[in-house]
Amino acid sequence: xxxxxxxxxxxxxxxxxxxxxxxxxxxxxxxxxxxxxxxxxxxxxxxxxxxxxxxxxxxxxxxxxxxxxxxxxxxxxxxxxxxxxxxxxxxxxxxxxxxxxxxxxxxxxxxxxx
Length: 114
What we know:
By secondary structure, the protein is mainly alpha-helical. It has a single domain, classed as Orthogonal Bundle (c-terminal domain of poly(a) binding protein). The chain has helices at 7-20, 32-71, 76-85, 92-101, 103-113. Helix 1 packs parallel to helix 2, helix 2 (32-71) crosses helix 4 and helix 4 (92-101) crosses helix 5 (103-113).
């Protein structure tokens, strides 16, 4: 019985992967084994960094809230503690946005918790 190989599917699979690595540096874009490894590693980084991105944004929001709270004579931890004590539930994302884009509204929140 002759050997059966599906070269159509194999070529399509390679073509798809080479299209994904197009634009990369060096042999990563045109050598099959190098491109395959680069693509797989890139997908691992993408998966990991979708979670890291959330951590980094939370850190950024905390820095912005801290900077704005200190302008009103209060540290971040004291401010957040007083927010929770007064049962004011506003996310850090919204607080950071208010601190940057609407300082008057942020000042009103700070005055409410003092």
